Amino acid sequence: MANELLSVPVAAATAAVGAAAVAMAVRRVRLTAADQRSPLMGVLGAFIFAAQMINFTLPGLPGTSGHLGGGVLLAILLGPAVGIVTMAAILIVQCLLFQDGGLLALGCNLINMGVVPCLLGWAIYHGVAGGAEKVRAWRQYLAAWLACVVGVTAGAALVPFESAASGVLQVPLSQFLGLMLGVHLVIGFCEGAITFAVIAYLRRVRPELLGLDPDEGSSASSGPGYVAVAASVLVTALLLAGVISWFASSCPDGLEWSYRELRPAAGDRAIQNQSPLVAAVERWQQRWSPMTDYTRRTSPLGQLPVEASEAASQAASAWARPDGWRSLAGVLGTLLTLGVLAGLARWTRRTPAAVLRK
Where are the beta strands (DSSP E) in 269-314? Predict the structure, then answer.
């Protein structure tokens, strides 16, 4: 979500809720720090950060695109608490370094992309797959797909209500909500396919990461160790951020397309935000974001960027877009996310759980 979608009071309220949810998740992670999956939060967070850079054109919806959210996948692999903490780190890095998401909207983004998909997706996944250690593959894949569709769509459905509560909607809430639900159902289907692929890979090489009991003599029992699996995920993340991002769709994502395509009768934009504080925060982000939208700054840090020329805008919308600066931004963001989450994972293992329970 961008800053313009919210009023300051709604932004403050959602920031408080989001911060409280992350704080509770951090405490939960520290209580369960002995879980062998927690150290994987760094490489999986790096993978999600990189994957979110890859927008893909949505089938049946020309002119718009979607990208992996990742909250449901993280919740399935790491548990909802670790998933929420991991998503929080990703969203904060994206917001502060790359102006990918508004600073005032950070609380909403934490709730919509982290808390709701992680909790709801995890509940649906386990409700369908069950807690058995030998669940059939088709049932596990169906559970993951349903979790993605519902988790992604539920998080997206909150956006129109948050904007309506802010008083910035210029179109009926039902119109914005209907369009958001339709677009994000398609995105949820696509995210389910990506999640399916990751789960299928891990089910084959390390099923215990999915809570499964590997069969004796199976390929998993003699498969790659945790270091090798983590290294493969990290290499994939770096390739996504450094190279595959050149081939990402240049169409606006589902949220941006939804509210920019809607027009009231007068022909104005569907979102109108006249708050001077919102405008000031937006300018602050533009001044101090080192690589806005994962590109090279057009002005020194601390100054507002200059308007892009028409030729530059056309070049930016071309496909594919070999761009060394985008690759650099993606790789730096991936490594920074990895470092932040690796540090968090190490910190959570330092305090004995018995101390936290007191």
Answer: none
